[in-house]
């Protein structure tokens, strides 16, 4: 059995002396990564005039996969082109096999390995300094890797250039397998993996943020099997603030580029592709609001109209036309505009599903009183 074991949380508690004397009078500083707060500031410890932080938090922020060997109290960190080995109580570390020194030795505090921030950041390939103007410690890491692991397989994506790396097991090295059409921005992306069995994973890199009454949403999806990319899809939206998100979570995996939707089977195979523009007869961006094995709900962003697609047949129905009464639709059809925050706040939204019955709410534009309507799925 390989002695390296992935750890997702606190290192195993060990009763060791921390080596700390009295804490210095130096005040704690805010710590930012690539000029963003990641929450690591609240975890810092000041001692010997040095800022120490949990290695796990630092590794996460800099996109490293972390392994821990309890008998030797040694941590191994891996990301593309860089492998680091640190040992509790030792100032010497290894960077790609070469020796490098830390300013202070790592130490275990209440079961967690803490490391000196500035020198460890340097060993990990970044730069850190104290901005004396605002007393913020800035950590800059140019590749800006994010990483995630599923069933022993690890992936990395560079938020700088979209390079995608894969490692089949904890003993391997990251290998580049592709690139996402990523536009570099100041925002950090969320990265998640859904393991589908048979060595197949669905990767999703997302950025959702709000600015100037606008929702910005970007998503990059990659279906990978045994290190080979089967399909990529991505979308980038800039839309008026989306105030009423659906309240029913999806139960079906899918990929979308805003123009089409493709289901993914439970064993990782690509399912039927639905061309939304062809099915609806309209051109423009769509967003998937709900996906289940039998149906999907997609919204046309230009007008907020909501459509339901039956996955078995590809039949599509405009629910906004069917469920919003003809009287209410007179005003709705006249001003329906997906860029209008007033319209967005009143659009038809799924609130509940009980068996084949879908329950929606919408608010007429004139009287302002919410209405509840239902739609019963037709067995296909």
Can you describe this structure?
It is a single chain. The chain has three domains: about 5-140, 2-Layer Sandwich (Copper Amine Oxidase, Chain A, domain 1); about 145-240; about 245-380. Residues about 1-25 have low confidence and may be disordered. It is mainly beta and about 375 residues long. It starts with a strand and ends with a strand. It has a six-stranded antiparallel sheet, with helices on one face. A four-stranded mixed sheet has the order 3-2-14-13. Strands 4-5-12-11 form a four-stranded antiparallel sheet. The chain has helices at about 55-60, 115-125, 275-280, 320-325, 325-335, 340-345, and strands spanning about 5, 30-35, 35, 45, 50-55, 65-70, 75-80, 80-85, 90-95, 100, 105-110, 110-115, 125-130, 135-140, 145-150, 155-160, 165, 175-180, 190-195, 200-210, 215-225, 230-240, 255, 260-265, 270-275, 285-290, 295-300, 305-310, 315-320, 350-355, 355-360, 370-375.
């Amino acid at each position: 059995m390989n002695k390296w074991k992935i750890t997702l949380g606190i290192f195993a508690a060990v009763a060791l002396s921390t080596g700390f004397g009295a804490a210095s009078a130096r005040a704690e500083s805010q710590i930012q990564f690539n000029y963003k707060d990641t929450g690591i500031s609240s975890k810092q410890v000041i001692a010997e005039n040095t800022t120490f932080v949990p290695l796990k938090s630092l590794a996460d922020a800099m996109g490293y996969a972390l392994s821990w060997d309890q008998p030797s109290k040694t941590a191994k960190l891996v990301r593309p082109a860089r492998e680091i080995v640190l040992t509790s109580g030792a100032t010497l570390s290894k960077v790609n096999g070469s020796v490098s020194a830390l300013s202070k030795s790592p130490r275990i505090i209440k079961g967690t390995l803490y490391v000196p921030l500035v020198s460890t950041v340097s060993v990990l390939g970044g730069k850190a300094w104290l901005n004396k103007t605002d007393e913020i410690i800035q950590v800059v890491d140019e590749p800006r890797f994010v990483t995630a692991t599923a069933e022993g397989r690890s992936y990395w994506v560079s938020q700088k250039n979209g390079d995608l790396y894969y490692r089949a097991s904890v003993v391997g090295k990251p290998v580049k397998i592709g690139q996402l059409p990523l536009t570099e921005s100041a925002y950090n992306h969320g990265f998640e993996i859904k393991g589908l069995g048979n060595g197949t994973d669905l990767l999703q890199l997302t950025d959702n943020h709000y600015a100037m009454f606008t929702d910005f949403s970007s998503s990059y999806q990659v279906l990978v099997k045994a290190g080979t990319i089967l399909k990529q899809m991505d979308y980038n939206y800039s839309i008026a603030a989306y105030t009423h998100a659906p309240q029913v979570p999806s139960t079906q995996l899918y990929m979308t580029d805003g123009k089409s939707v493709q289901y993914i089977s439970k064993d990782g195979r690509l399912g039927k592709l639905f061309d939304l523009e062809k099915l609806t007869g309209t051109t423009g961006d769509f967003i998937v609001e709900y996906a289940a094995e039998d149906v999907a709900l997609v919204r046309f962003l230009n007008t907020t109209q909501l459509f339901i697609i039956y996955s078995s047949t590809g039949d599509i129905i405009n629910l906004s036309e069917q469920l919003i009464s003809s009287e209410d639709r007179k005003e709705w059809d006249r001003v329906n505009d997906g860029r209008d925050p007033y319209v967005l706040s009143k659009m038809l939204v799924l609130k509940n599903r009980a068996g084949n019955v879908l329950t929606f709410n919408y608010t007429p534009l004139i009287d302002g009183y919410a209405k509840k309507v239902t739609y019963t799925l037709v067995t296909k």
